[in-house]
Amino acid sequence: CIRDSINAEYGDISAKLLEKRMGEFVREVVATAPINIAVIKYWGKKDEQLIIPLNSSISVTLSQSQLKTTTKISLRKNSPSQSVDSLRLNDKEDVVTKRIKDCFQELRELYIKQKGEEAIHILRNTHLVVESWNNFPTASGMASSASGLSCLVFACAALFDIQGDVSHIARRGSGSACRSLYGGFVKWEAGIDDDGSDSRAIQLHDQLHWPALRILILIVDDRKKTTSSTSGMETSKKTSQLLDYRVKHVLPQRIPQMESAIATRNFSAFAEITMKDSNQFHAICRDTYPPIEYLNDTSREIISLVHRINSTRVHPIAAYTFDAGPNAFIFCLEQDQLELLHHIQNAFVLDEKELTDQSSRGLIEEAKRVTPSWGESGFGFGKKKTPGEIELKNILCCHVGSDPILLSKSEHHKL
After folding, report:
1. 398 burial class (0-12, 13-18, 19+ CB within 10 angstroms)?
2. Which of 289, 266, 327, 239 is nearest to 62 (CA)?
3. Which of 1, 287, 300, 312 has the least C-beta neighbours within 10 A?
4. Which residue, 227, 317, 329, 348, is CA-closest to 278?
5. What contacts 357, CB < 8 A, 6 or more positions away?
6. Cα angle 32-35-41, degrees, rounded to a multiple of 5
7. Are 200 and 206 in contact (CB under 8 A)?
8. Four-CA torsion 304, 240, 142, 212, nearest 10 degrees
9. What is the DSSP letter of 184?
10. For residue 164, which of 107, 118, 104 has the smallest C-alpha distance?
11. Considering the chain, what percentage of its residues have pLDDT values greater than 70?
């Protein structure tokens, strides 16, 4: 738990919450948090202010070896030059948005509720200073807000020694952030209470539940998307009849089917449901008026390739899903990973100078030497394309990941 992690490094927080350093009262925590990729999508809010979703969603947390947010947060005494909460993102000053302010407010209120007069005394005349870094593109459909806001809430809860679940607070910053507070397989319950108190994330299974599951991330475009998820959801809710049909008639059956597929590690069922749900999400985007288009030509080529590969097998061995962006997340089992990588490289021009993750690079190089057991022909792709015609900027090879991590004092200095 958060308390045990911190006390192992710093001692009893109640007694040593603040240190005197350079004339300021400072207590600092550094944490990292993962991204998650939804296999049952969240799209549309029942309450925009409280970030209560129209439907429950299910996601897989990815390993932090490739993608993560690192956040350093400190509590400092107010001074003439600084008395309000501040944020730096990727070494640049950023805005403390209303959603972040809501998270800070709820965390302070929960801190006071749990600690009483001690918390009131400590919070008096202090402000929060946050520095956060993503090691992947922001706002490009790769769950940067989920990772970033979960890391912020997790770190601040550790700073205040808050006990218990805080996913309902992370939800206020970015809906899907609540799912990144847990590793493995996670469900965000939409809840039924008007105040959102029961709209929280729960862990269905930890990261060890399905050790053979792998995720290939095909980065097609790392630029900021033109339509934000927030804006897209608002427009879809107003104009898409398909969204209403999905919530009322599709998801009541699909969600328990996905839970069963994960529980039994049934990849065939998992793959089919994952792809159908991704397709329906993007169909809703196109049903929105005016339509929203997150996928591009390369995204659609990836979809076609996966289906052609699966058509050569009795059961599917690959499953794609796309969030609000063109980048593909392809699920497979470890036994099929190298063959899939072989065919992906055969189908698309890959910018190999961008392969900065060494473990992924090693697998990609190994895949080049694989002799596929199910042939190269019939997929309609090959080396006839000219460089740049269809191109992947990067490929990351991931596995299912764990909860956010609190860094030790010695690890702070590496930042």
Report:
1. buried
2. 327
3. 1
4. 329
5. 65, 66, 396, 397
6. 150
7. no
8. -60
9. S
10. 107
11. 86
What is the rounded (10 degree) CA torsion for 337, 342, 344, 350?
A: 120
Strands laid side by side in the 201-205 sheet: 36-40, 57-61, 185-188, 201-205
- Cite the DSSP H helix spans in 162-228: 167-173
What are the tokens at 312?
Answer: 């050569």
Task: State mean pLDDT over 320-340.
Answer: 96
Distances (CA, A) of 298 to 12, 92, 311, 325: 53, 32, 20, 12
Whose CA is closest to 32, among 129, 145, 148, 140? 148
Within its chain, how far is the Cα of 28 from the centroid?
25
Report the SS3 class of residue 90: coil
Would you list the DSSP string of 58-83? EEEEBPTTTS-EEEEEEEEE-BTTB-
- What average pLDDT score do residues 82-109 get? 96
- Mean pLDDT score of the chain: 89
Q: What is the DSSP string of 244-311?
A: HHIIIIIHHHHHHHHHHHHHTT-HHHHHHHHHHHHHHHHHHHHHSSS------HHHHHHHHHHHHHHT
Lookup result for tokens 């439907």: 55
Is residue 326 a contact partner of residue 332, using CB atoms and an 8 Å limit? Answer: no
- Digit-coded pLDDT (tens) for 63-73: 999 999 999 99
Q: Using an 8 Å Cβ cutoff, are 321 and 216 in contact?
A: no
End-to-end CA distance of the chain: 24
Q: Are 207 and 88 in contact (CB under 8 A)?
A: no
Nearest partner of 122 among 25, 249, 38, judged by Cα: 25
Q: Give the gyration radius of the chain's Cα atoms.
A: 22
Alpha-carbon distance of 411 to 95, in angstroms, equals: 27
Count of CB atoms within 10 A of residue 26's CB?
A: 16
Residue pair 151/70 in contact (Cβ under 8 Å)? The answer is: yes
Q: Is 112 left (phi over 0), alpha (psi -120 to 50) or beta?
A: alpha
- Interatomic CA distance for residues 350 and 354, integer angstroms: 9
How far, in Å, CA of 336 to CA of 268, rounded? 13
Per-residue confidence (pLDDT) for residue 7, from 0 to 100:
43
The mean per-residue pLDDT over the stretch 195-199 comes to 96
Task: Outline where 11-67 has alpha helix (H).
Answer: 13-16
